[in-house]
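[agent] plan:
  1. take the single chain provided in the ticket
  2. run structure prediction with default settings
  3. attach structure tokens to the ticket
  4. add a short note for the reviewer (M.T.)
[agent] executing step 1
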Amino acid sequence: MTVAWKTTEALEGQELPREIYLPLVDSLYKEGRTLLVGFFMVVGSMLITFWKTGEPLLLGCAAAFVLIAGVRAHEMRAYASVRSTIQTSAAARRWEHRYVVGAASALGVLGAWCFIAFAATTDAFVQLVSFSITIAYVIGISGRKFGSGRFVLMQILCVSTPMMAALLLYGSTYHKVFAVFLVPFFMAVAFICERLRRTLLDAVISARDVRLLADRFDTALNNMPHGLCMFDAERRIVVANEQLNEQLGLTPSFDLRRLDPSQLAETCLSAGMLSGPDAERFVLELEDRLSGSRSEDFLTELQNGRTLEITVQPMDNGGMVVVVDDITERKLAEAKINHMARFDALTGLPNRTILRNRMEATMA
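[agent] step 2 finished; step 3 output follows
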């Protein structure tokens, strides 16, 4: 409860609760289609570079990438099968580590591919393809792996180190200058990933807070002694508590939402709680309050002998809040007090008050 309303900044450096941390891990395992597209793009490009040069190390890179992709696909299916059983942040963290190991391995193979393209060949086409495909894959980090904030930098290092080493060790002066310009590029990718992670974290925290607020509202609504429902501007029920169902003789599971006043009266009529004339009067009385032509409370007599007092309050959005109070006991108490004031408690005969009132009326 103490973490319920904390912002992203307040949570920085702290252990994230499961309900916040787990959606971040989920974001890593959801994009299977993009991984599949990237797999065919990378393996196809690696095979093209091998076909053009005949360099066996390039074929080895393709085989290693296929193996890693198979393991990662298995990990994604395994995570989907156990997702509902993950109950702690520690368990979610283990799955995050497993994903990061697979992602870093794939990026390491791409970096090695670029290094081999410069170290083992002099083919400009092969070098261009390896660098462009790897750069495109790195950009994809911001779209797939941003949920793992602690390991984005590690993944970038796995691919950037061999790429820059290839440019610095085997490239010309222009390649070396280009290697310097790669540094801000990789830093920008890291910054983008961090920004996306914060955006996702804000969304997760907001969704969690909304759920907490909705749960508290639902608890308060269903534990209040009065029946309550809310009508929207179209005069349809959008919220109703269980106490209202009980007062109207309906089962707790009966859903009153989307009913208008006429449908609500028909429901009570079908349940045997209102007679035909009472149902018509109920609709007229409620419609008058919803339209704003009248504002005072009104009473409804049910077929089971209960009496309901209905209060209607307007809302700013054009809707109405309807509070239903069972005043049966109050009416019985008032009737009893009135009887005690007018009749003798022992004999049940009219007392002096009634005699005087009748005499005054007769004399008048």
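[agent] step 4 note for reviewer: The chain has a mean pLDDT of 82.
[agent] ticket updated
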